[in-house]
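ugh finaly. both done.
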Amino acid sequence: MVDEVEFRLLGPLEALDGDRRLPLGGGQQRALLALLLLEANRVVPAERLVDELWPEGPPQTAATAVQVYVSRLRKALGPAAIATRGRGYVVEVEDGRLDLQRFEALAAAGRRALAEGDAERAATLLRDALAEWRGPPLADLAGEAAAAPAIARLEALRVSAIEDRAEADLALGRHAELAEELEALVAGNPHRERLRAQLMLALYRAGRQAEALAVYREGRRALVEELGIEPGPALQRLEQAILVHDPSLDPEPARMDATVIFADLGVAAPADDATRARDFLARASAEAAGAVAALGGTIQEGIAGAVLATFAGEDHVARALAAALALRDRLDPLGHPRLALATGEVLAGARADGGAFVTGPPVGAAALLVREAAAGEIVVGEEVAEAAGARFEVRARPGSPGRLLVRAGG
C-alpha cells in the first residue's frame, strides 16, 4: 500500500510526496497509472491494460511494454506502489490519498443529504466535492487515445455532481445566481436534459418565463437535428408546466438550522422631514447589509425600520453573534439600534415577487426578545448564549429570559 504518496486525477495526473511532484514518465506510462488509479484497490488484468493502452490494436511487444511501464513507475513511486496480483496489477491507495475517492465520498454524502431533504447540507457537501477538481480531468493526457474513455467517465461524474448541487441550490431558492452558471453548462453539454431542466426552472423562478421556454426550444432543436429524437417526457412536462404557471414549480421552503438576528434600526431621523428619514433608513439598511453579508448571512427585504438576518450552515451561531456586534457598531452612529438573536429550525423559501422569506420559532423569539433590549443592547436567547461558549461574553439579565451579549473574546 502507498501510504505517503498522494495521487490526483481531477486535473493533470499527479503523484505527490509531500510537496514534491514525482516523475511519471511519458504519455502511455502515465495513462497506465491513470487506468490503475481509476480502479484503485482493485486488480486490473494485464490483458485489459493492453487493450486500453492500444485501443486500435496492440503490438506484439505490448505485454512487455506494460511490464516496463510498471517497473519504471515502481522506481518513481516506490517498490510497493504497484503490486502484482495473479495476472494483473493493483495500486492500493490509503483512504484520503486519492482525490477521486475524496470526491466520490463527498458527492455520495451530498446525494444522501439531498434525498433526505437537507438541501443546505447537500449543497455544502457537493461544493466540497467539486472543490477537489483542479481543472479538466487528466488534462495532460488529453491527446492519449488510451485516456479518452477515462476522461469522459470522470467528466460525466463531475457534471452529475454539479447537477446534484444545482438541485440543492434550487431547493434553497438560489435560482437567480444559478441561471448564469447553468447557461454556460448547458452550452457545453447541450444534450444533458437534467441540466437543461434546471436552467429552465431557475429562469422561470427568477421571473424569466420567456427565456425558460426559449431554452426548451433550443434543446429540442439540438436533439431533433443532431440525434433525431424528441426531448424526454420530463422535459416536455416541464415546458407545459411553465406555460401554465403550474404552482408545483414554486420552490418548497427549506428546513434548516439557523440563527436569526432581529434588529430595530433605531434611526434618529427627524420625523418632520420625510426625505431625510428615508435617507437615514437607506444608509442604515446599507450598513446592516454590509455587516451581515461579510459573515455569510442573508437579509429579508421589505421590513421597514428593521432588519431580519439569517445565518445558516457551519458555525452559524458564532457568525450571527459576530455580525450582531458589527451591526451595533455600524448602526450606533446613526441612531440607537436594539438587537436580538435566537436559534433553531427555520423555513426558508422564495416569495412570489422573487424575494426571500424566513419563518419559524427563532424569528418569533427574536422579535419578542428585541422588545426587552435597551438602545445599543444585544439580547440573545438561552440556546444562543449556550452555543456562544468562551468566544463571546454573554451576561445574565435578571428578571429576563434573554442574556446580554457584551463583546467577542470574553
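ok and the 2nd:
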Amino acid sequence: MIWAIVQQVGGQAASYAVFFLLAAILRPEDFGIVGMASAWIGLLGAFAEIGFGAAIVQRAEVRSEHLSTTFAINLAGGLILALAGVLLAWGAADFFDTPAVGPVMAALSLGFVIRAISLAQAAYAQRELRFRALAVRDIGASAVGGLVGVGMALGGWGVWSLVGMTLVNNAAGAILIWRTTDWRPRWREVSLARARELWPFSSRILGFNILKALVQNVDRLVIGFVLGAGALGIYTFAWRVVVFPVRVLSSALGAYLFPKASRLQHDHPAV
C-alpha cells in the first residue's frame, strides 16, 4: 500500500513542481493551446486500451497469451488513434479558430503509440501489486520529462516545451516500466479467443472510459471555443492547482484496492 501512495504522491509532486516552473516561464496562451489539443486527445484517449488492461488486472487467472493479445490490441489501437489524431488536428484548429492547435495536436497524437507499448506491462505490474516499479516509472518519467520541458521553455520554445515534456514523459515511462518487469510479448501467443475472454469485462470499462472522457474534457472544449486560449490556459492552471491534490490519495487507494480485491473476488467475506 505504501508504494501505491508513493507512486501517486511522488509522481504528482514532481509534475506539480515542473508545472509551477513552467507557469512562471510560459504564457497562459501556451497552456491554453495545449489544453485545446489535449481536450480532443482526451476524447480519443477513451479508446486507447479498450479496457483490456483493466481486464488483465481483474481476471482471476491470466496467461501469457492474454498479455500478448492485450499488447497487440493496444499497439494496433495506438497506431489507429495516432493517425486519427493527426487527421483531426487541423479540424480541431478550425473548431477553436486557433491555427497553432493543429501542429500541437498532431505531435501529441504520437503519444498514443508511445503509451500503447507499455500499457500491457503496466497492467501486469499492477496485477502483481508491483507498485514500487510503478512508482519508479511515474517519478522517473515525470522528472525526465520535466527537465526537458523546463529546458525547452528556458530556450524559448514556448508551447512546444509542453509538447516535448509530454512526449518525453511518455517515452521515459515506457522505457522504465519495460526495464522493471520481466514479461515480454510474443506474437505467436496473440489469440482472438483470449481477446473474447477479456472482452466482457473490458467492454464495461470502455463504456465507463467514454463517459469519463466526455465529463473530463467538455469543459475545456466549451471554454476554449467560447473564450479562447488565454482563458483556457488560466482555467487549466487553476484546475491543476485545486483538483489534482484532492485526487492523489483516492487514486492511490483505488490503484491498490482494485488488484487486491480482484485476487479475493471469489471470497466475498474477505472482500
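summary for the 2nd one i guess: The CA atoms of residues 68 and 185 lie 5 Å apart.
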